[in-house]
Amino acid sequence: MEYQKEFSDKIKNILESFREELMGFRTNRPSSKMIEGVKVEYAGSVLTVNQLGSIGIEPPRDIFVSVWDRSAVGAIVKAIESSNLGLGVQAEATGVRIRFPELTEERKKELQKGIKSSAEEARIKMRMARDEVNKKISKEADENTKFKAKEDLQKAVDQFNESIDELVESKIKDL
């Protein structure tokens, strides 16, 4: 039915945006997602770090931004320092080195809370989408179709919740 297709598309989008959001949470492994969206004031405009250079990972806990224009190094350093990500930033001749310090237990707990909070926000979005579809089903469908449609909807909700739980568990394990 069109209801299930519509709901399925919505929850796929919610799940994908949750995955993207999780990439922004810092683990012990550096991820370019953490800094690529940082806004940098440069040459009279506001750009993101990934618009000013290429971002590479240098194990174990460094990110290196190779800038395309060396005059952007200072602006990138300033932007990352002011973004309060808790990262060590160092200007170098050809770019910017970002060091990830070891995570403390306190910081891990804060990150876990943030991850769980984001998961709950995703669940709330899903419930809102489910309620929308339930209203449409109640208005437009006959009795036989209503029962089957709501049953299928609940299966999709359960599957969504399992996916969210797995993603949260995996991210917390990475911490």
Folded structure, characterized:
- The chain has 175 residues and is α+β, with helices and mostly antiparallel strands.
- It folds into two domains: 2-24 and 104-174, Ribosome-recycling factor (Topoisomerase I, Chain A, domain 4, Orthogonal Bundle), CATH 1.10.132.20; 33-99, 2-Layer Sandwich (Gyrase A, domain 2), CATH 3.30.1360.40.
- Helix content is 62%, strand content 17%.
- The protein has six helices and six strands.
- The chain has a four-stranded antiparallel β-sheet. It has a two-stranded antiparallel ribbon with strand order 1-2.
- β5 and β6 form a beta hairpin.
- α5 runs antiparallel to α6 (143-174).
- The chain is elongated, with a radius of gyration of 21 Å.
- The mean pLDDT is 89.
Give short descriptive properties of this protein.
Topoisomerase I, Chain A, domain 4, two-stranded antiparallel ribbon, Gyrase A, domain 2, 6 helices, four-stranded antiparallel beta sheet, alpha+beta
Provide a brief overview of the structure.
With 175 residues, the protein is α+β, with helices and mostly antiparallel strands. It has helices spanning 2-23, 33-36, 49-52, 73-82, 105-140, 143-174, and strands spanning 39-42, 45-48, 53-58, 62-67, 88-92, 95-99. A four-stranded antiparallel sheet has the order 3-4-6-5.
